[in-house]
Design brief:
Chain lengths: ~110, ~110
């Protein structure tokens, strides 16, 4: 069965610092990979997705993620964090039939002024 | 922007009462998911519909939960009778199966069962 792990439960960074959130997945076929962000009291918003092609994908709000098949990873990065980026971040894996969609446990990001 | 609409946004009820949560998926989307989010369990998949047919509801307690799609514009999640352990935020998400399923989430329904 597919699974997603996010090793970091909570990360704190200073505003302006770089950020990397880790995501590892287990999936038997070609994965479709996603990062979602959830602000307090809100639903989940899609940041970016990987289906195929270039392994470095760009998303909204200045985020990017890199798919590394050899490491089964899809880490999320941002070169300079803004205070408004404080939120919960979820990595997810799915398939092309839309049925097997699994979320990781999430990483909570705090940003220091 | 097209959005998934969930009602109610907040619901406080007493144990034993029936609760119905509604979801209007994005027009044209053919998949609907119901998730439950709690601090302890994170995001749990409750049910999944494709073209209004339930394909997976293995995550749902069958004795008290039921999910339906009476038409393409409405999905419902019902709890009867409700229990305090059902207190959570319930999210509906819709998507379109066309190569890959990108989900759009609603804002959620926060349920408190006293």
């Amino acid at each position: 069965a597919q699974s997603v792990t996010q090793p970091d439960i909570h990360i704190t960074v200073s505003e302006g610092a770089s950020l990397e959130l880790r995501c590892n997945y287990s999936y038997g076929a070609t994965p479709y990979l996603f990062w979602y962000v959830q602000s307090p009291g809100q639903g989940l918003q899609l940041l970016l997705k990987y289906f195929s092609g270039d392994t470095l994908v760009q998303g909204i709000k200045g985020f990017e993620a890199e798919f590394k098949r050899s490491q089964s990873s899809f880490n999320l990065r941002k070169p300079s964090v803004h205070w408004s980026d404080a939120a919960e971040y979820f990595c997810a894996v799915g398939d092309n039939y839309g049925q097997n969609f699994v979320f990781g446990p999430g990483t909570r990001l705090s940003v220091l002024p | 922007d097209a959005r998934v609409t969930q009602t109610p946004r907040h619901k406080v009820t007493e144990m034993g009462q029936e609760v119905t949560m509604r979801c209007q998926p994005i027009l044209g989307h053919n998949t609907v998911f119901w998730y439950r989010q709690t601090m302890m369990q994170g995001l749990e998949l409750l049910a999944y519909f494709r073209n209004r047919a339930p394909l997976d509801d293995s995550g749902m307690p069958k004795d008290r939960f039921s999910a339906e799609m009476p038409d393409a514009t409405l999905a419902t999640l019902k709890i009867q009778p409700s229990e305090p352990r059902d207190s959570a935020v319930y999210f509906c998400a819709s998507g379109l199966v066309s190569g890959a399923n990108v989900l759009t989430f609603g804002a959620g329904s926060r349920l408190t069962v006293l």
